[in-house]
Design brief:
single chain; about 260 residues; alpha/beta; Rossmann fold; eight-stranded mixed sheet; 8 helices; 8 strands; about 35% helix; globular
Length: about 260
């Protein structure tokens, strides 16, 4: 499948490997929560479909990119793929799904409250959703593809105003992962030192997306050249789920209706 931006970390581009493995591990951590009828809004290129769909009685996956949905339909004929722009979730019933998973999606959605309210609406009473999103405290620069990013408290407070129970966990990395993260931090700092007016925090997202993608790809390629062994050797098992900490790389939010 096509990779549209650096926002869609590819399993085929070597320099994307640390990001791909980090995102993949979240799906592995979600396996114990999967049961019954499952909804995945924002399935992207289907990173977790093969892993999670066999554990579900019914699996419905939504994404806005029609070409991706068409290709996934051929690859996973047992999954109900639908092209959709959300929120709201059109044509999805109230109290229908046992589980909702939405990984690295909420930060892209303008009306995040409506998004969570819609997840609440389609879940059965007692149903659970898992939402992952970057931890803003570990972000290295502004991402113009994101509407916003969250702290643990911000996401917990928002979800807690809608759901009966919220449990905050996070995806963390071992020493190998954190070595890569620090190399990445230093590399980003070398690039952003030229932004003396902090334009990345003031310009509209639309103006920043193309230069961000170019510089992000350049940065990942430079990190690969700098330490290819580290970039290629990082595996999903170098990431793990743990309790809420301020330095988790991603927030892993489990909510119950």
């Amino acid at each position: 499948m096509a990779t549209y931006t650096t926002e869609i970390a590819s399993d085929k581009i070597v320099s994307d490997n640390p990001i791909h493995q980090r995102l993949l591990q979240a799906y592995h951590e979600a396996i114990p929560y999967i049961k019954g009828k499952v909804l995945e809004p924002g399935c992207g290129e289907g990173r977790g479909i093969a892993l999670l769909s066999p554990a579900a009685d019914e699996y419905v996956a939504l994404d806005k990119i029609e070409d991706v949905i068409k290709e996934l339909k051929h690859k996973f004929p047992s999954v109900d793929f639908r092209q959709a722009v959300f929120p709201p979730f059109h044509q999805l019933e109230d109290d229908y799904f046992d589980t909702v998973i939405s990984f690295q999606v909420i930060e892209h959605i303008k009306d995040d409250r409506l998004f969570l309210e819609e997840i609440h609406r389609v879940l059965k009473p007692g149903g659970q959703a898992i939402i992952t999103t970057p931890n803003i405290k570990m972000s290295l620069s502004r991402n113009p593809w994101h509407e916003r990013e969250y702290t643990n408290k911000e996401l917990k407070d928002l979800a807690g105003s809608i759901f009966s129970k919220v449990e905050m966990k996070g995806i963390a990395g071992n020493e190998k992962v954190m070595e890569y993260h620090e190399q990445n931090r230093a590399s980003v700092a070398r690039i952003t030192r030229f932004d003396i007016f902090n334009l990345q925090y003031h310009l509209p997202n639309a103006l920043l997306r193309i230069p961000y993608d170019i510089l992000n790809r350049l940065n990942r390629n430079n990190l690969q050249k700098q330490d290819e062994g580290l970039v290629t050797e990082i595996d999903r098992t170098d990431y793990y789920l743990r309790d809420q900490e301020e330095d988790n790389l991603d927030l892993f939010c489990i909510v119950t209706k």
